Amino acid sequence: MTSLHSADLPWQPLSPLDGRYRVAVTGLGDYLSEAGLNRARVEVEVEWLIALTDRSLFGTTPLSDDDKARLRALYLEFGQAEIDWLAEKEAVTRHDVKAVEYLVRDRLSSLGLDAIAELTHFACTSEDINSASYALTVRRAVERVWLPKLRSVIDTLRELAVAHRDAAMLSRTHGQPATPSTMGKELGVFAWRLARVADQIEGGQYFAKFSGATGTWSAHLAAEPDADWPGLSRAFIEGLGLDFNVLTTQIESHDWQVELYDRVRHAGGILHNLATDVWTYISIGYFTQIPVAGATGSSTMPHKINPIRFENAEANLEISGGLFATLSQTLVTSRLQRDLTDSTTQRNIGVAFGHSLLALDNLQRGLGEISLAEDVLLADLDANWEVLAEAIQTVVRAEIAAGRSQISDPYALLKDLTRGRRVGAAELADFVRGLDIGDAAKERLLALTPATYDGLASKLVDELG
C-alpha cells in the first residue's frame, strides 16, 4: 500500500481564504497581507525621512520635489522585487522592521541620496513604524474594501425592504404564530441595525504613536534638545491621516483596534442573525431560491436547492467573530512597557476580516438569489386567524375604559377562545358579533383579517431613509 506524504504534493495554502475563496477576499490582500504591511512600513519610513529633511534637522536641507517623488515611488511602486528582497534580508536579520530599514537604505544609495541615509528609521523603535503601518493598512482595508461591502449588503436589504414593504406575513415570536408584520419591515430591521453599526465603524479612530523606545522621546532629545519632538511627531502622524497617541509605552496601546474589532464583531452578530432568519424563511417556504444554471443542490437529491450562501455566511461569521474576540482580548494587554504577544496576534487581522468579507459576499449573493413567495405568506396568514385575538382583547379593553362594555376580563375571554387551538374566520366573526362592545368597534374588528392586521409595518420602512 502506498502512503502519501506531504512531499508528494507541491505546497498548498492552509487557509481556504488563500485557496477556494481567494477571489472573494482578494481586495484585502493589498492591505492586510505581509506584503501590504511591508509596503506601509516603507511608506512610513520614507515619509519620516521627508519630514525630518523638510525641517532641515541635523544640517539637512529639504529635498527637491523630484527627489521626494523618487523616494515615494519606493512604496507607490512596491512590488515583487521588494517582496523578494525583504524575504531574503529578513532571513538574515530575523527582524522584519529592520529588513525594511535596510531596504530603504539600499534604495537611497541607488537614488544617490546616501547623504540622508542615517536619518532612515531615525530615533524610531519598531513599534513607531508598526503602529503607523497597522493603522494605515487596517484603515484602508476597512474603508476601501470591508466597509463598502457591508454598505452594499445594507443597500440590498433596503431595496428588499422597499420592494416587500406591503407583503404581509405571519410573525413567529418564540417560533409560534404571532401578530403579523411585513417582510419589508422585518428586513428593514436588519438594514437599520447594520447601518447604525456601520456608522460607528466609519467614525472610528486609528491611532499611532511615534515617541521612541518607551514613549518618552528620550533618544530624540539626546540628539536635538531644542526640537519640538512631540509636535513634530503629531504633525507627522496626522499628516498620514491618522490619529496621534501622545501617551504610550513602547507600543501604541491598541485600544482603537479593540474598539474596531468589537464593532465589526457586533456587525457580524447582526449579519449572523440575518443569515439564520433568511435560512428559516426559506425552510418554511416564505422565500424560494432562484435556480442557478448548472449548479447542483444535493449530490443525491436532484430537487433540492440548498441555502448554502446563508449557511456559508453563518459559518464564516462565527469564525471571524471568534478571531475578532481573540484580537480584542489579546491586544488590550501588554506586560509592562512591551511584550510581543501582539505581534503574532496582529498578523491574523487579515484572516479575521477575510472570513467576515467572505460572509458578506455570500450574503449579498444569497439575497440576490431568493424570491418572495407571497402566496405562501398569504396562505399562512389565512390559516392563523387566532392571531387577531390580540386586536380583539385590546379593543375590548378600550371599550371598557370608554364605558361601552361590561366585560370583566377580556384577556381571559380571548385566551379561552384561542389558546392552543385554531380558530377560523367564521368562528371569530361570530365571537366578535356577540361581544358587549360598541358597534363602531365591532365594525373595525370584523373588517380585520390576518393579512391587514400589520399596523404601521409598511410605513416603518420609510425610517430607513
UniProtKB/TrEMBL annotation:
Gene3D superfamilies: Fumarase/aspartase (C-terminal domain), Fumarase/aspartase (Central domain), Fumarase/aspartase (N-terminal domain). PANTHER family: ADENYLOSUCCINATE LYASE (PTHR43411). Its EC number is 4.3.2.2. Pathway: Purine metabolism; IMP biosynthesis via de novo pathway; 5-amino-1-(5-phospho-D-ribosyl)imidazole-4-carboxamide from 5-amino-1-(5-phospho-D-ribosyl)imidazole-4-carboxylate: step 2/2; Purine metabolism; AMP biosynthesis via de novo pathway; AMP from IMP: step 2/2. It holds the Pfam family Lyase_1. Residues 84-313 form the Fumarate lyase N-terminal domain. Residues 334-453 form the Adenylosuccinate lyase PurB C-terminal domain. NCBIfam families: PRK09285.1 (NF006764). Catalyzes two reactions in de novo purine nucleotide biosynthesis. Catalyzes the breakdown of 5-aminoimidazole- (N-succinylocarboxamide) ribotide (SAICAR or 2-[5-amino-1-(5-phospho-beta-D-ribosyl)imidazole-4-carboxamido]succinate) to 5-aminoimidazole-4-carboxamide ribotide (AICAR or 5-amino-1-(5-phospho-beta-D-ribosyl)imidazole-4-carboxamide) and fumarate, and of adenylosuccinate (ADS or N(6)-(1,2-dicarboxyethyl)-AMP) to adenosine monophosphate (AMP) and fumarate. This is Adenylosuccinate lyase. It is an enzyme of class 4 (lyase). Keywords: Lyase, Purine biosynthesis. Transmembrane segments: none annotated. GO terms for molecular function: lyase activity.
